[in-house]
Amino acid sequence: MSQLPRVVILATGGTIAGASANPASSARYQAATVPVTTLLAAVPALQSVARVEAEQVAQVDSKDMVFSLWSTLAARVQYWSVQPDVAGIVITHGTDTLEETAMFLQLTQACPVPVVLTAAMRPSTSLSADGPLNLLDAVRVAAHPDACGKGVLVVLNQQIHAARDVVKAHTSAVDAFVSVPCGPLGFVQDELVRIARAPVRSGMAPLPVPQHWPDVEIIASYAQPGRIVVDALVGAGVRGLVIAAAGNGSVHETLVAALRDAVAAGVAVVRSSRTGAGHVAIPPVVDPVCGTFVSAADLNPYKARVLLLLALAQDPGLASDPERLQGLFASS
């Protein structure tokens, strides 16, 4: 019998490691309290799938995610991914910022082996905890040869998603994660791992993990906004702003005036859409309203912020070069 593949699990906490005094409650619990060794012990079927090795990288509620943990996680992914006998890496994570961490890893990691994020919508003590099956499925995908070369993946609720596409779209349902507009890449059903399509790969080289992170914030456009927030952020030295704009990147005229002043002050401005799906049209550079505001393409505001953070950290000059910055978003 051939030896099982070796899969490394990097645990960061989240609801999958959460616990509650009331097993009937899936909404009131303490996240990030159960160690990864306990999570593994609850899934004995893992022993028939892979030789699993676990590392407790952090124990946090992902709503409190910070850049320093991203940097640490990237370093551990880089370390394990080049070990000659490691077939894949699984990262356990909270659901609140999972899509942002997945995007960060997608943009910074070369991924010589599958890197798979998983999580849970219900704590480990819940009567119907979804974490154990999600963890088992994630290990199955990480160990599967068809997962190689697909970039960073997310496995939840028996579905396989591309990191760039996946978003959390529900507050509490176990099928909270979806991929828009193209749907998941495949599925897991017991021992069957089926990847039906490959994600679109831009060919963009991995961006370096920043030593120093620029200040990049998100603001929204809505009925009768003021310019107070934009002016305050520019005064505080923000380097980039992502706009959660209405519709196809539409920005209220009051904000347009404030954002033009921000651009003149050397701040990068990127338009995304608050709708949750669709591509924000790229206006001509001579457009009188949004010509100097970069389109986030089809990235939501949170993923657009991750890309803008990494881009400005690598090249601060992009803030005053919207054409080059637009090219980066168009190719991401």
UniProtKB/TrEMBL annotation:
One Pfam family linked to the record: Asparaginase_C
Keyword Ribonucleoprotein: no
Name of the top EC class for this enzyme: hydrolase
Active site: T15, T95
Transmembrane segments: none
Keywords, comma-separated and alphabetical: Hydrolase
Positions of the Asparaginase/glutaminase C-terminal domain: 215-316
L-asparaginase N-terminal domain span: 6-199
InterPro entries tied to this protein: AsnASE_II (IPR004550), Asp/glu_Ase-like_sf (IPR036152), Asparaginase/glutaminase-like (IPR006034), Asparaginase/glutaminase_AS1 (IPR020827), Asparaginase/glutaminase_AS2 (IPR027475), Asparaginase_C (IPR040919), L-asparaginase_C (IPR027473), L-asparaginase_N (IPR027474)
Known EC number: 3.5.1.1
Cross-referenced SUPFAM superfamilies: Glutaminase/Asparaginase
Protein name: L-asparaginase 2
Organism: Cupriavidus numazuensis
Gene: ansZ
